[in-house]
Amino acid sequence: MKKIVVVLAAVLGSGVGLGHAADLRMPVKAPLAAVPVFSWTGCYVGVEGGGNWGRSQHTQDDPFFVGAATVFGLNQTNGINLSGGIAGGTIGCNYQAGNFVFGLEDDFSWTNKKGTANLIPPFVTADTATTSESWLGTFRGRAGYAWDRWFIYGTGGAAITRESYALCSPGTATGCAGSAANVAGWNAGVGFEYAFLGGWSVKAEYLHVDFGKHTFTRAPTPTGFFAARDVSLSDDMARVGINYAFMPMK
Question: Are 103 and 90 in contact (CB under 8 A)?
């Protein structure tokens, strides 16, 4: 009987030991699912708007104007300050390699940017000169650095605008006259963009645009004409926008 008890105790003791050994084994963890990494690669459309301001100046450029020998090449105005609003649409595509993002962007905007100033001596100081724009488009490259959903970039390229000038002689039969032309230039700026939900992102940017000088030919008036002139024009704009990626950024 004693032998049976001893054998049972030994068996039970070994079972308890095995149980404790099993309890001491390290738990096996399930493999972690890969966390998706956001990518800016894709194409998008959007809207944008903001403020637009700049500078312009008129210079006499008509060798056939009466008395041109004494005034040819002289500034007709001091700097003209222009300001207005801007709003329009955007389309573009990005490609991301590592943390670097490269892309192309095209936008077209309505603007009411405008400025007026009186002429300066030796011209008739009661006369006024106006420079204005009715629309503005840019085609730019973008390149920058992305931290997940944040993207900071530099941008630059070509620009085109509908530029107009007007010259008025108040209180005279000459009245007002003017002309308009599509004028090309260049632009450069900086901005940042944040992707907040699916393919949606918001951005803010600053652009400087320079259209140089454009020569406007003589403009007819009720009693004759206004002389040809060179009109310089530059823009500065600060705007915000919202984009939607139709080839989704992931």
Answer: no
